[in-house]
Design brief:
The protein is an alpha+beta fold. It is 39% helix and 21% strand. The chain has one domain. It contains three helices and four strands, in the order βααβαββ.
Length: 119
C-alpha cells in the first residue's frame, strides 16, 4: 500500500461525474435526445462539475513523495486544478496529539497535505 497520492480536480474526473448526471437526466426525459444535444449537455455539465468539484484522489498511490510529484508535473499537461500531494498519516488534534478511535482505541488515519521536511 502506498502512502502518497495526488489530490485535485481533473477534466477527466469532472467528465465521469457529468456523464452520470446527464445520463440520469436523459433517462428521466420524456423526449428522446439527439447525439448533438447530448454532447452539448455533457460539455456544459462537465465544465460546471470541473468548477465546483472538491479535490479527489486523481493518481494511484505511491511509496515515495517524489513519484507523486512526478505525476503532478505530468498532470500539468492536462486540464487540472488544485493539485496537491497528500500522505496517508495519523490524524492529530490542535496540540499535535494522536487521535484514537474511542470505540477500539486504534489510531485514526486520513489523507493529509504532505509537507516536505528540509534539514
Amino acid at each position: 500500500m502506498g502512502a502518497f497520492a495526488v489530490f485535485g480536480v481533473t477534466h477527466e474526473l469532472a467528465r465521469e461525474k457529468a456523464e452520470k448526471l446527464v445520463d440520469k437526466r436523459r433517462a428521466s426525459s420524456k423526449t428522446p435526445w439527439t447525439a448533438d444535444f447530448y454532447l452539448v449537455e455533457l460539455a456544459k455539465e462537465t465544465q460546471a462539475q470541473f468548477e465546483k468539484m472538491k479535490p479527489l484522489r486523481c493518481s494511484p498511490e505511491y511509496d515515495a513523495p517524489q513519484f507523486a510529484n512526478e505525476w503532478k508535473e505530468l498532470a500539468k499537461n492536462v486540464k487540472a486544478r488544485d493539485l496537491q500531494v497528500r500522505c496517508w498519516d495519523v490524524e492529530r488534534d490542535e496540540t499535535g496529539a494522536e487521535i484514537r478511535n474511542p470505540k477500539n482505541g486504534r489510531l485514526k488515519y486520513r489523507w493529509q497535505p504532505y509537507r516536505e521536511q528540509r534539514s
